[in-house]
C-alpha cells in the first residue's frame, strides 16, 4: 500500500499541475442555503442533501459521507448518505483498514486517490468503478471522525483546487449540521426517557393514593361521621387528577382549562357548569391548589348550592387584568339554586377555598341570596412559576 505521505504529496502535485476554475460563490452559497433549510425542516436527511449539493458544486458523479462507528477501537466506516451513481450503497460501509477514508483520518487532510481498487481491493466490488476520488475530513470538535467524498467514475473531469475548497467548506458546514442533529436527537431521547419516568412515578403515586384511601376506609370505618371520610377520599381523588395533568406536562405546568374540566367532570354535573377563559398555564403548586379549591366549591354546590336543585347553574371563568403586574382574576358564580345564607361555621373545606388560586389567599366570597359569588385574584407570574423552581432543582 502506498505510504500516506506519498498520497499527500501526490495530491498536492496533482492540484498544482491542474488548471483552477474561477470560484462560483453564488453556487456555493446556494448549496449551503439548501443544506441549512434541510437542517431546519428535516434534520434527519441533512447529510443526504449535503451529498446532493456536492454533486452540483463539484460536478461529481457520486458523493457521500463516511462516519467512523467506533473511534476507540478503529471500527468500521458506515455510509449514512450517498447521492449519484453510488446511491444504492447508502447504509453500507467498509472496514477502516480497507478504506481510503482511514488514510484521510490519519493525515487529517483532504486527499485525492487514483487506482483505488489496487490500493484498497475491497472497493473493487462497487460499480461503477472509481476513476478519481476526492475526500475531505469530517470533523467534530476539531477531531476527524469521517469524510465527505466526491467520486468520478468517468473521464468527464478531474478535481482541482476549487473542488477541494468547496468540499472542505461543505464538510465544515455538514459537521455543524450533524452535531446539531445529534444534539436534537439526544434531547428528544432524554425527554422521552423523562416522560417514561414521569408516567411510572404517576402510576406508583396512583397506587399509593389508592392504598391511602383503602387504609383510610379501614381505619375510619368506625367513624360515625361518614361525610368526613368521603370528603377525605374525594380530596385525594382531586389531587390525583391534578397530578395526572401535571405528569402529561412533565410536571412543569398544567392548563387551567384542563384542570377545571377534569375536576368539574368528576362531580357528575359538568353539563350545568360553564367554563370560559383564555389559555393560561399554572405551575405545579398552583395547579394542585386550584384543583382542591374547585373540588371544594363544586362539592359545596352539590350539597347546599346551585347544583343541589335541578335548575341551578354555575359559571367559572377567568381573565388576565393589567396593572403594574399582570393579575389572573377568576370568578365562580352560582345561580338558580336555593337562597344563600352565610355559613354558621367554617371547616377545612372553607380553608381550602380561602387559600385561593395559588394557595396564598386573595379571595372574596359574597353570599348573595341569588347565589354564591367567589372571586379570586393572583399575580399571573406566580401562578405560572410557583412550584416550578422546586421541580427544576432551583
Describe the structure.
There is one protein chain. With 394 residues, the chain is of the alpha+beta class. 47% of the residues lie in helices and 21% in strands. It contains twelve helices and 13 strands. The protein has a six-stranded antiparallel beta sheet with strand order 3-2-1-6-5-4, sandwiched between helices. Strands 8-10-11-13-12 form a five-stranded mixed beta sheet. The protein has a two-stranded antiparallel ribbon with strand order 7-9. Helix 2 runs antiparallel to helix 3, helix 3 (46-58) runs antiparallel to helix 6 (161-219) and helix 7 (226-248) runs antiparallel to helix 8. The longest helix is centred in the middle third of the chain and has 59 residues, at 161-219. It is elongated and about 100 Å long. The protein starts with a helix and ends with a helix.
Radius of gyration: 34 Å
Q: What is the terminal-to-terminal distance? A: 59 Å
The profile of the biggest β sheet is:
6 strands, antiparallel
* Major beta sheet, strand line-up: 3-2-1-6-5-4
Tell me, rounded to a whole number, the average pLDDT.
Answer: 83
Number of beta strands? 13
- How many helices in DSSP terms? 12
Order of helices and strands: HHHEEEHEHEEHHEHEEHEEHEEHH
Structural class: alpha+beta
Regions with little confidence, pLDDT below 50 for 5+ residues: 389-394
Helical content stands at 40-55%
Q: Outline, from the CA principal axes?
A: elongated
Strand content: 15-25%
